[in-house]
Structures are given as C-alpha cells and as structure tokens.
Amino acid sequence: MSYSTQTQAQTEAGEIAGKEFLAFTLGKEEYGIDILRVQEIRGYEPVTRIANAPDFIKGVVNLRGIIVPVVDMRIKLSLGSPTYDQFTVVIILSIAGRVVGMVVDSVSDVTTLSPEQVKPAPEMGTTFDSDYLIGLGTLNDRMLILVDIDKLMSSPEMGLIEKIAA
Amino acid sequence: MTIDMSQFYQVFFDEADELLAEMEKLLLALDVSAPDSEDLNAIFRAAHSIKGGAATFAFNDITEVTHMLESLLDRIRKGEMALTPEHVEAFLVSKDILTMQMDGHHHGSSVDQDAVASVCLRLKALSQGIADAPAAVASPAPAAAPESASAAPVADADGNCVFRIELPEVPQRDVDALAAELGLLGTIGQESLADKRVVFTLTTPESQDSIVAICSFVLDPDDLKITHGGAEGSQSSGAPAGLPLTGAAQAGAAEAKPAAEDPGYGIFEPEKTDAVSPPAVAAPVAEARNPGRRATDKEGAGQESSSIRVGIEKVDQLINLVGELVITQAMIEQRIGVLDPIQYERLLNSVGQLTRNTRDLQEAVMSIRMMPMDYVFSRFPRMVRDLAGKLGKKVDFVTRGAATELDKGLIERIVDPLTHLVRNSVDHGIEMPEKRRATGKSETGKLTLSAAHQGGNIVIEVSDDGGGLSRERILDKAKQQGLPVSDTMPDAEVWQLIFAPGFSTAEVVTDVSGRGVGMDVVKRNITAMGGIVDIRSVPGAGTTIAISLPLTLAILDGMSVRVGEEVYILPLGYVIESLQPAAADVKDIAGQGQVVKIREEYLPLIPLYQIFAIEPNFTDPAQGIVVILEADGKKAALLVDALVGQQQVVVKNLESNFRKVAGISGATILGDGGVSLILDVSALLRSSRQLNADPVFF
Hints:
The complex is a heterodimer of chains A (about 170) and B (about 700). Chain A is an alpha+beta fold and about 170 residues long. Helix content of chain A is about 15%, strand content about 45%. Chain A contains 3 helices and 11 strands; from the N terminus they run αβββββαββββββα. Chain A starts with a helix and ends in a 13-residue tail after the last helix. In chain B, the strands form 5 sheets. A 6-stranded mixed beta sheet of chain B has the order 14-18-19-17-16-15.
C-alpha cells in the first residue's frame, strides 16, 4: 500500500514539475513537441528523392547507416517558404521504434510547461486536425502549439507507415 | 561425391544443446495441473527438431529416444492423456539421456546404454497408459551402475547412492538453481562450508555423470568435487564381494581425480585417507577408468575457443560502424586529393594504406554474415538418400543456385524449415516406384532444391514431381479438426491449411513425418524471418514449396545508372546488356508505349523518368542508354540517361523506418554517404507489361 501511495505522489510531483517540450518555428508559428521523442537535431543534408511520394516527403537520408525518411513540415502545413540552406534544421524523431526526420524553420529552445500552462486547443478549421494537438502552451507572451507528434507521424495522412493490414 | 558431414555436426550439436536447454526450461516451468498448450507445443517442437537433425546425421539412438518422447508428448498435446508429474519427470530424465547421447556423439564419451533402455521403457510404458512403472526405472539403475564404470558410485540396497557435491564459490542464485535441478534426481541436503562454499548431499539412483551434466549448465565441471559421501556403510555393500581391488579403485577414482587436479581443496581427505594414500596407484586407475570424461573436458575447452556464438545485432552494429568508417575514409581521400603530392607524400602514403586496411576490414566484416546456400544444401543429399532407401523410393536429388549468398542469420534459421520440407517431399510427395510406373512417370522421382535472388527477395524452392497435394484429403482432415473450411475455397487457401498446428494427412505416423508438426514449424520460422511460404501443387505432377525471404542484409552486385539528378542501383543479375539504340530501331506502338528492336527482338521500352517522374537529360532513347533487363522470363529495355558504374552494395531495408515504395526493393549507402535506391526489376517489368496492355495474368 505504502508503495503505491508513494508512486502516486511521485507522479503528481512529476506532473506539477511539468513536461519538457522542444520548441520550433514554422513560418511565424511556434510549435512544441515532447522532448522525449527527439533523438537529435541535425543540419539539412541533400536527400535521395522517393519517386511518386507526396511532395512533403523530401526523401531519405543516411543516418549513420540507417535509412531515414525526411518530411518537410513547412510543405505539409503550408507554412513558411521551403528553402534549404546551412541554417535549415532537421529534427530526428524516434517514434514507435521508427526514426523519422522532420524539417522545420528553426529550433528555439526547450521549455518546461506545467499542466496549468497547457490550455485545450480550440475547435477550428486549421490545417491541422485538432486530433493531433495536445493543446496550446502559454509561456509569458509566447504561445506554443503543442503537437502529439506520435499520433501525427503515424497517421495515415502522413503516409509514413504502411497500413497495418498490409 | 563424398561430403564431409562432420563440418555440420557442430551446428547440430549447438542447436540441439539450445533446444535441450529450452526444453528443460519449459518442462520445469510447466504447470502440471493446467499445462499451457503453447508450452506443450514448444516442447514438442523442440523434440521434433532434435529428431529431425539427428536423423539427418544418422544418430539413430537419439532419433529413437526423441521419437518415443514425441509420441508421448503428442498424445498429451492432443489431450488424449492428462499430464502427470510422472510424465514431466520422465521427460526430464530423457532430456538428460539425450544430453548424454549427444555428448557421446560429440566428444566420444561413454553412453550408458542401460539408462537409455530404461528411459525408452519408461516412455513406452507411459505412452501405453500404464501409470508409472517404478520397477522399470529403479531396476536397471543398479544394474547399470557396476557396468558403467565411469560412474563409479557406490549403490545402497535401493540402488541409491549418496553423493557429496562440493561447489566452488558461486552466486546464491546459481546455488538455488542447482539445488532445484539436482533435487529432481533424488533427495538433496545442503550445508555451507566455512569459506562460504556450498556442499550438497544427494541421494539418487542416477550416475555421477548425470550430476556433472546438470552442474555443467551452471559451472565448469572441473571446479566441481563430487565424492560419494556416507561411505562407511554403503561402501561395503557397493563393492561386490571378491573384488576388493575394484572397490578400492572405485573409491580412488572418485577421490583421486579432484585431489590430483586440485590439491588446494583437501577438505575431504581425512575421511578417506586410506583410499587416497597411494595416489600414484589410484590416479592412473582413475585415468584409465575415466578416459571419456577426461577427453570431454579437454575437447570441450578446445571447441569453445574455435568458434563463438554472438548476437546477430552485434555483428550488424559492427557492419554499420565499418560502413561509416569506409565513408569517412572516402571523405579523407577526397580532401587530400587536392594536396601537392610531393610536399605531402608521406601523408598520402599513409592514407593509401588506410584505404587498403579499411577495405580489408570491410570485406572481413561482411564475410562474417554472408554464406553460400551450399552450407545448407550440402546436408541434404545424404539425408535424402538414407530416407529414400528407408522408404524404398528412388529419388534423384538436384540442387541449383548453391552459390547464392545469404545472410548467415537467415541461413541458420532456414535449415530447420528446409529439413522438414525436404523430408516431407521424400516421404509424402514422391510416390513409390510401382505407383510412379503405373501413372506413367519414371520410377525415379526428382527432388529439386533451388535458391535464387528474385525481385528483392531470396526465393528458395523445394520442388518434387510426386503426386501433389490432395485437395479432398486436406479438406476432409480440416473438417475433422474443426477448422473453418468450405468446399469452394481456392486452392491456394486449401494448401495453406497444411500449416495449421497438428495438421497431417498422412495415415501412418512414422519417425519420418506425419505428425503435422513440421509444417507448423516451417511456417512459424519463416514468418519470424519476415518471409512467406507459397505452395504450388498440381495433382499427379508434383508440389513446389517456395520460401521467399526478404533481402534485409544481402550483398548485391549492382549497376548504378543515372536519370536526371538521381542515381539508382540495378541488381546486376537482371542486366543482360546495355547499349545506345539507333533512332531507327525505336518504334511507337499505337501512340502508347515504345519498343526497341535489339538483335531481331522487339522489347518494350520502359522510360524510367516517366515511371519515377524525374526530369531527365534525354527523353530520346537514341541519345540515352537502354539497359536490357530480364526477369521471370520476360525482357525489357530500361531507358536511363547514363551508366555510372558497377559496385557491390549492401541492401538496406527501406521499410524499417519508412514503407514499401512501388518499384523499389531497397536502398543502399553510397561511398559519399548518400542514399541510393535499388530498383525492383520484376515489378518494373510487370508494370511495363501493363503499360503495353500485355496479359499480366495467365
């Protein structure tokens, strides 16, 4: 009994301490994803194009011997201009045992948000299905759009993972 | 043609050891009152696999024991018999016997034939439904003891001996495990010595060898001191009258060995000083009486150092790291290419050496994983011959594509399924000579085993020209077993039914096949490798079972071609030639596709830039290059911009992080660190046929 109470207390403490999010920008908007899903952040390298793939799937790159697909969130969400230079950043995500690269405009910082700081996302017609949103994070005068990156990347919409039936 | 079968013995022994250990683990974990059918199946499969392997190598004694074990397990598995503790006990004993037999074949150590016979009796008695026959177990044991001199225990009136087993310093966990294991042999007591070592006192009808065998799972038998304790009373009863010398020598054998090997452990000596006092005499006796045991120890040590089994993921990691090293090395080479060769002569020389070393390293690392299929194929001719002889059939065995290289991990795992399939083909597929003659076929059946790279997969086929599968019998049997079937099922689905656990259409269960476990194992193993099994069968004409395995890590001879900015790899096996056609040889067909006339043949032209929507340098075949490809008996001409080169590439799976892409079978990493995609030639040719409105299905 005492053990379970203790764990509960710990979880509560953890929630109060909040979760850490990696903040990045796409166009003028600021987004946040769970830092635990981020494997590393790299510069953009030339990709090998995949024929007949949707245009937001840039192609595949070699990440230390493994082949990793790269998606450009700017194209996917029609935000910002997809330019590729030495400042273009790729966030390498590790999701459900798979590794995926995600191109964004820039990465700003890692912030800790407590549950009170996370507001539910309003229902509205965004480019983003609100199913993929955890909520909106408020940090002083900044607003982070918190994305459920697991859900988004494994969604059929992204087409990164084959349908289970196949 | 003679084949040195001994090169495969080691593999069999390694596998069998693992299977036996697995079997024991499962047996010990088994809940007797409510056994899990999965566990029972797993035990059964282990026994079956050992049997299959043993039969391949003609270890008939092992086959015999496993066959009986299997019969009994099969009845329990099917629910015809309830599992009792006696069964579990008998299984464990037979597991020990198998280990002993295995050692006998492996190291030439002595095998206690009486114990083997007694286990066989016991298994037989159990499978006939007689509860337990304690007499059958207990009576041979004392008889066995004096005969198998290496055991040298002193038996009391009940055939039990008291052993004192002194362990070296081991963790408590191991001590507990050992105590549990040894407890299965008889009654066990435990005490601790002053230096924290543990001593067991075991009263058991088993021989000393069994104890050593059990302990050797946990620790080195050399560190073990086994003596028969309680010597005062039992010694007189154990030493047969009129043979005092033997009695003393037996005592000496047990005592002198540890004493001679490890004089530091003298804790026991006071008890039996008289027996050990002439060590010069006792030691040679012990040596002579224990030759097998000694040889085993030495050989065992030698074997261990000659090969190690490591996890495949470690090798993978190594290969990836070396791949990175090669790329880094290529980068360094590029950087120094601009340097003045006179000023930096020594640096350039060193880098040149580094290049060679890296290449050698890469080759060596790659060779760890790749093995020719011959490694698997060459075990079969003997097996087929023996099996055909036993069944009175005539079989012509042919292998094709034995040089096809396959990843070692896959090779090792394909052995069992293939063994089952080949045995099945000989047993069920190919008919008896009389029957073949009656149906107008040649008396000698033909069994073909082939391997080939095909469309990004390795396809291994076992094909016979026998009677084919019987749709009616399979459906009847499936209905009997309550499987959901209907009479209108397509053939392909009917064939798949034979993979159901416990499914067999053979009327008689022989030690060759017919239990229906084989196909269950085949399917399971192959699915675990990410492959698929496909059956094609024509009644009266034969059956072909095709195993298709993905090329997760196969090396491919590739030809790199350029289209626009993209470089693709074509598997060289599909490439016949490449050329630049004359403009007059390219013709349009109905404004749709184009054909190219090459050597009096019109081949469909596949413009790669169209399929992959690339901006090419040339759209006119007369300006670009066409590569003539052949797959599945069809030829086509692939239009590309230019040929880049030819190289060996390591196939990387695109699906592990992404998904299947049409027309692409995999990816590879080029020397500059970039990724290049490998074309799926079969798929390209199929799509081209659709393009030209050719009938795709026939």
